[in-house]
Each structure stands twice: as C-alpha cells, then as structure tokens.
Amino acid sequence: MAAPDHRAPGDPGTLATLLSDDPAEVAAHLLDGWLISQLGERVAVRITEVEAYGGVGQDPGSHAHRRRTPRNAAMFGPVGHAYVYFTYGMHWCANAVCADSGIAGAVLLRAGAPLTGLDDMWAARPAARRVRDLCSGPAKLCQALGLDGAFDGADLVAREGRVTVVDDGVEPPAEPGVSTRVGLSAGSDHPWRWYVPGDENVSARRTGTRRGRAGRAEAAGG
DNA sequence: CTTTGGATCGTCT
DNA sequence: GACGATCCAAAGG
User: Fold this and answer.
1) Is residue A206 in some structural domain?
2) Closest residue by Cα to residue A34 from A45, A48, A42
3) Of A106, A82, A6, A96, nearest in space to A47 by CA
4) Which helix (H) or strand (E) holds A179?
5) Which residues touch strand C (CB under 7 A)?
6) Average pLDDT score, chain A
7) Among A5, A13, A77, A92, fewest CB within 10 Å belongs to which?
8) Is residue A10, in this structure, part of any structural domain at all?
C-alpha cells in the first residue's frame, strides 16, 4: 500500500543480463523490482505479478507461438525492450522481452503496487476507487503508467528511458506464489504465473465458466 | 463479498 | 469473420 521509504532504484544494467534467459526462468526474478514511467512527475510501482510467454513452437498461449508478425515483432527483438500490445478493442498490456537473441520470449507485467506518483495514477485511472484498483491487472498497470503502443519496442533497461524496469537490489520473494496463467484458451496448463504472496495488488482471476478453473483470490493467504 | 454480461477493434485466418 | 495475455458496472447474497 504505502511506499517503503528504504527502497531506492539502482543500476538497471544488471537487468539486461538477467533477462537474457528463458522467460520461465527469469520471470519471478522481476517480482519486487521497480517499473517506472515519466507520466507527469515520476510514477513508480513495485512489480507484484508476472507471467512468462515463450517463442515459436514453444508455447501455444504466446503471441509468438506461430510466427513473427507485425504485432509481435518486438518479442523477437532486443532483450530488455518492451512488447506492448493492444487487446479487447480497448486495452494495452506490456511485456519485458527476454530469452536469447533471435528467440522470442517475454514476461508480461501483470500488476504492481503503487509507490510514487499516486496523483498521476488516480488521474490516469478515473475508474479506480481504491489504491489496489490502480495497478492490479495488466491493462490497469499500463493505464496507470501511461503506457500504450507508442512504447512498443522501448528500451526498458536504458539509463534514461521513458519507461524503465529497475532492480533495486531487494531480493524477490523466496517463495513466490505460482499458478497457471490467466485468460488463456490454449497453453493454460503451464504454471507460468508468479506473484507476491499476500499482496493485495494482484489481479483477480475470473471464477466463472468462461475459462480457467477454480481460481480464487490468490492474493490472500501469504 | 461474488457473479454476470457488455464494450470494442486490431490482428490473424 | 472470429476471437482475444481485460476491465467495469450492475445486480444479488
């Protein structure tokens, strides 16, 4: 909820190295890292939920499963850059590209805990009622940080980028929550979703008959 | 608190 | 022409 005072963004350089590996290997390491944008002043969140997506022929749930297309091109590009896509006719979602060069892969940034720039986030998300409504979902996160198609391909590990993912040196959870991915019709069997246990800034999984199975409020429990 | 239906358009078949 | 890596308002317990 409130921003811990002791946290301070560090050197983004080490992150590029981290991301040069399989999405499923690196995804959980992004938990508790910082995602910062320059909407208004400085808007920052602590990453609380991520999902891994694989490359061609590796992952039926991935946009890159079939082949490279104009939309998913960023997934085949440099590690540490953003893959931002438009979905459901109205929402943007952002990924951090990873995997070795030439092999498509990405980590979807699904949720975050607001740290700084709360005023800008409230302004960017009029529908939000509580703090946990600001960034508790991939499209909410993008809206709160002002991320859209203009950020597709942006360098997330550049020292002075418009959007930056930063490792603040704080270790990610020793035992992160794990589950299957949200909202998929294919590839939903892989346990490639990770989240900070007990954090309320985590997306709610739909429990209805449309998809998925018995998911619950996994933010609870600890 | 939970559940349901609707919005809305780019992308790929 | 179909379907989303989703969110929100409304309605019911």
Assistant:
1) yes
2) A45
3) A96
4) strand A177-179
5) A 51, 53, 61-64, 72, 75, 83, 85, 87-91, 93, 95, 106, 108, 125, 127-128, 133, 137-141, 143, 181-185, 203, 206
6) 88
7) A5
8) no
CA–CA separation, A54 vs A107, rounded Å? 9
Residue A17 has pLDDT above 90, yes or no: no
Q: Are A94 and A86 in contact (CB under 8 A)?
A: no
In a domain, A1, yes or no: no
Residue A7: band (very low, low, confident or very high) from pLDDT cuts 50, 70, 90: very low
pLDDT value of residue A3 = 39
Q: Which nucleotides of C are covered by protein (CB under 7 A)?
A: 3-9
What predicted TM-score, i.e. pTM, was given to this entire model? 0.90
State the nearest residue by CA to the C1' of B9: A89
Closest residue (CA) to C1' of nucleotide B11 is: A71
In a domain, A4, yes or no: no
Give the CATH number for residue A157.
3.10.300.10
Listed as ranges, the nucleotides of chain B within 7 A of a protein C-beta are 1-4, 7-13
Instruction: Kindly report, residue by residue over A51-103, the tens digit of the pLDDT.
Output: 999 999 999 999 999 999 999 999 999 999 999 999 999 999 999 999 876 78
Give me the domain span that covers residue A141.
15-220
